[in-house]
Sequence to fold (158 residues):
Amino acid sequence: HTPSIFARNSLNYVQEVGVLKSLKPHVCARENIESFLFFMVLEGEGRVFSEGKNYTVKKGDGVFLDCRNYYEHQSSEENPWEIKWIHFDGLEVKRCFDELVSKKEFVPVFALGKNAEVYASLWEKIKEAQNRKTLLDEMDSSRFLFEIFTLILLICVS
Fold:
């Protein structure tokens, strides 16, 4: 999805959204990308490396990464994962994230727990809005992204 100029300058906006079912493990390693990545593990397991630490992730976990910093993620060879993911960005998200993590330790892996269906529902709404691509859909996506982001921060900032 290519966000409009208005969305890039004024909203939280989707860069990419999708589903991945790993058939074999591969390491995805990135840094210096103006983006945040959120993914939910629907099946299987894998690992995430972020901020100098390794995390094991499994079905029912969520991951939130600041792609400006180095990170890696990899599906398990024995039990490959299926994930739903969103790359997104926006001034509001950056400012809130930077302000909160400057004051507290951030943990990028968390159990979706009782909010699993809320995350899944918001992901579906974002995916649907990206298929329509109107200004109102971009505004809805911005709102849904901030809802996901807020739920994540309530859990991940200790």
Q: What stands out?
A: The beta strands are 13-21, 27-30, 36-43, 45-50, 53-58, 61-66, 71-75, 82-89, 109-111.
